Amino acid sequence: MSVLFSSHPIFRRLTAIFCAFILGAPSLTLAATVRIKDITDMEGVRTNQLIGYGLVVGLNGTGDRLTNSIFTRETLISMLNRLGVNIRDQETQLQTHDVAAVMVTADLPAFAHGGNRIDVTVSAAGDSSSLTGGTLLVTPLMAADGEVYAVAQGSLATNAFSARGAAASVTRNVPTSGHIANGAVVEREVPFDLSHRKNLHLSLRNPDLTTASRMAAVINRTIGPIAVVEDPRTVLLDLSTRDPVPTLSRIGDLLVTPDNPAKVIVDEASGTIIMGADVRISTVAVAQGNLTVQITETPQVSQPGPFSNGQTAVVPRTNVKVDTGKNNHLAVLPGGTTLRELVSGLNALGVGPRDMISILQAIKADGALQAELEMR
C-alpha cells in the first residue's frame, strides 16, 4: 500500500537523494557499550524525600504581609512564645514585613549517616515577594513516615534580584525560591545492610529483555553463575557464596551493549522529533503537492504633473503568485529504509519539523513505519 502526503516544492529531487542514501551509503548502527552501574539501580538503594515548614527572617521588607498570611503570623507568635517572648496580648500590633513562611525540601541520599550534611531548597509559602538575603531558622525535615530525619538552618542564596519603580519592574530568575548548600544535618539514618545481603536485584532504568539477558550473560561469564533474568527490568544476583561489596563493585564496572525497541517520539507543541537508530520503514510511495499562494504588496506614490490641480495619492500594487506543485513527482522508498535516511533526505530538501511530523504520522497510518510512534 502507498501513502501520499505533501511537504516541499522541490520534492522532485527526493528520488535522487534517496538513491544516494540507499545504494551508496548503507546505514551502519554503531552500538555503544556502557557500564552496568550506569544503566541499573540496586534494590533498596534509593533516596528519600524530606519536607519541613519553617520561617525565613532578615528580609528587607519583602516578607509576608501578616494580615494576609495568617499562618505566618501564628507561626511567628508560637516561635517567640517558645523562646520566652509572650506577645499574645499585642499580636494585633505585629506588623513586621521581614519574615516569610517557607516550605523546605531535601533529598536524603542512600547510606547517609548521622552528622552528614545535605542540600536543601527553600520556597515561599505566603505572599513574600523575595527571599533574597534571608536566613532560615531551625526547621525539622520529616519523611513520609512522620519521623524527623534532618534539621535545616542557614543563609539562603537565590541567585535572583527584583527591582521595582513607579511604572516598571525588573525580575531575574525566581527570588521566591532559594538554596542552602549543606544546609541540613542528618539526624536519623535509613538502615540498609549491604554487606550481609544474600541476594540482590539489579533494576534496569530502561526495561528491555535483550539488555537484561546480555547483562546476565556477561556477569555469569566474568563473575560466575550468579545472575538470573526475572523480567525485562530485573536481574537477580545470588550473593550467598560471595562477599557482596567487592562482587557488586566488579559487576558495576562490567561493560554491556544495551538494546532499545524501535521508537519515535514526537512533541507537536515544540516540533521536536526523537527517533531510535533501529527504526525501519517498509516500502512506501511519497508525493508532494502543496498549494502555495504568495501575495506581495508594493504600493506606489502617484504625483500630479507640474502646475496641475491634481493631488498626490498612494496607488496599491498587488502581486499574487500561485504554485500548485504540478512539477513534483511521486517517489518510492524501498523496504528497509531507515528513518535516519528518510529524515536526512527531507532535511536536504528543506522540510521543516512541522511537515516532518505530518509525514511520520502519514507513514504510520499506512503501516509502513515499523516502530512505536508516541505523540506528546
UniProtKB/TrEMBL annotation:
HAMAP family: FlgI. Pfam families: FlgI. Keywords: Bacterial flagellum, Cell projection, Cilium, Flagellum, Periplasm, Signal. It comes from Gluconobacter cerinus. GO terms for biological process: bacterial-type flagellum-dependent cell motility. The basal body constitutes a major portion of the flagellar organelle and consists of four rings (L,P,S, and M) mounted on a central rod. Assembles around the rod to form the L-ring and probably protects the motor/basal body from shearing forces during rotation. It is found in: Bacterial flagellum basal body. One of its GO terms (cellular component) is outer membrane-bounded periplasmic space. This is Flagellar P-ring protein. Belongs to the FlgI family. The keyword rRNA-binding does not apply. Residues 1-31 form the signal peptide. One of its GO terms (molecular function) is structural molecule activity. Its main location: other.
